[in-house]
């Protein structure tokens, strides 16, 4: 049996559409399912870039070309993030926050958001706040080490 790559993508799209059609998925769960579409949309975007390169891209004039093939290339541009957000039924802002939570190393936070215990926004705020606190703590520790504070043999200036 010979598998056509496009046929596999079509089957995958169908399965994902069924999953997204379920009414009981939370926003973060829809984002997780929509992420499975990423390779499809990235492939389309890459093909559009190649097509634009072959056709010379946009002309330097401010008016769009009357050539229908160039106009269709412009209309076919794909913003992967916006397309994924639309697929999940969320705003691009919520989608980006949800993706950052799903990509984070904080398994506890992921579970809290996935279970509905925390909203995407609350989880994102906690994630960002935790990163800011870590950066601040690292900065303070570096400053302390450089100044020799708490060191039995501090660096003496002058």
Layout of helices and strands, plus pairs?
Elements lengths: L4 H17 L5 H8 L3 H17 L13 H8 L4 H9 L3 H12 L3 H8 L5 H28 L11
Could you walk me through the main structural features you see in this protein, from its secondary elements to its overall organization?
With 158 residues, the chain is mostly helical. It has one domain. It is 68% helix and 0% strand. The chain is built from 8 helices and no strands. The longest helix has 28 residues, at 120-147. It is flat. The termini are far apart.
For this entry, give a set of tags.
8 helices, mainly alpha, 158 residues, flat
Average residue pLDDT: 78
| SSE string, helices as H and strands as E | HHHHHHHH
How far do the termini sit from each other? 81 Å
SS content category:
mainly alpha
Radius of gyration: 24 Å
What's the number of helices? Answer: 8
Question: Tell me, what's the shape?
Answer: flat
Helix content: 55-70%
């Amino acid at each position: 049996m010979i598998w056509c790559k496009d046929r596999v993508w079509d089957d995958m799209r169908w399965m994902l559409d069924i999953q997204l059609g379920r009414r009981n998925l939370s926003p973060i769960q829809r984002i997780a399912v929509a992420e499975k579409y990423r390779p499809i949309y990235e492939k389309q975007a890459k093909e559009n870039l190649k097509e634009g390169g072959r056709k010379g891209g946009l002309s330097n004039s401010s008016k769009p070309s009357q050539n229908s093939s160039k106009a269709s290339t412009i209309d076919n541009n794909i913003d992967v993030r916006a397309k994924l957000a639309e697929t999940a039924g969320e705003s691009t802002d919520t989608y980006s926050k949800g993706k950052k939570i799903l990509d984070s190393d904080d398994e506890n936070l992921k579970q809290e958001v996935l279970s509905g215990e925390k909203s995407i926004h609350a989880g994102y705020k906690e994630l960002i706040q935790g990163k800011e606190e870590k950066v601040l703590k690292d900065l303070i520790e570096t400053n302390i080490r450089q100044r020799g504070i708490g060191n039995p043999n501090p660096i003496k200036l002058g």
